[in-house]
Amino acid sequence: MTKLPKAQRDKLILAILGTAVVLAGLYFGLVSVQLAQIHGLKAQRDQKHSDAQKIDDSIHNAKKIEADLNQKAAELKTAEQDMASGDAYLWMVNTIRQFRIGHDVDISQFSNISNPDVSLYPHFPYKQVAITIGGTAYYHDLGLFIADFENHFQHMRIQNLSLDPSPVPTGGDREKLSFRMQIVALVNSNPS
Question: CB 3.0–4.6 Å: which of 6, 30, 73, 160 could bond 182 by disulfide?
Answer without folding.
Answer: 160
